[in-house]
Amino acid sequence: MSNNKNVFWQALVIALIVFWMGILIGIYFEKSRVEKLQDFYFNIETDIFDFQLASEIIYGFGLSCDSINNESIYFADKVYWEARQLEKYDNSNKITEELISLHRRYDLLRTLLWENVIMAKEKCGGKINTIVYLYQYNNPSLTTKATQGTMSSLLLDLKGEYGDKIVLIPIAVDTNVESLNALRDFYDLEKTPIIFVNEAQKFETIDSLKEIRQFLDIN
Predict the structure, then answer these.
(1) What per-residue confidence (pLDDT) applies to 197?
(2) For residue 46, what are the domain limits?
(3) Which of 91, 99, 173, 197 could form a disulfide with 201, with the two C-beta atoms 3.0–4.6 Å apart?
(4) How many independent structural domains does the chain possess?
């Protein structure tokens, strides 16, 4: 009987050690992901502020709309491709709150980018094609997740087809970015996921996206 008890306690201790090692390893990798995301975030933050300053210089010196449009497209594309690095972490388990907090910063910066592109379009006659993709980030349902996956793939194909002729800005709606909420209220973008083209046309279903090319100004 004594031997059986010893075996039981030994097995329990080993199980607890394995359990806590798993937790610690998970936290370690989560911290590692956060550090990588912070690097991406600082790069994007620099790009956004650089874009703002460049826009102010262009407006202040009265340079041409071609310069404004080119700068808008350049910075929007740069932010888009850098931000895509974030997607590999979106499906991972969120052991800490830091990933959600970092994602909120991304969403704030991308909202700021969208606002700057809108201003550039208003100043220069709307020659920039914007596609804003609003989606759920925190615990979407399986149906919503499947719809968002399909929408994201279709938009990626569209970006590959048209390149810098369109500006694609994906933003999560549920990370408490008040400036984004204000824009959503202004443009009546309550439903998600939703794709908003050129501040005018809404696409709320996968089937409706078949018509998206009709609302792009592609020369």
Answers:
(1) 95
(2) 2-215
(3) 197
(4) 1
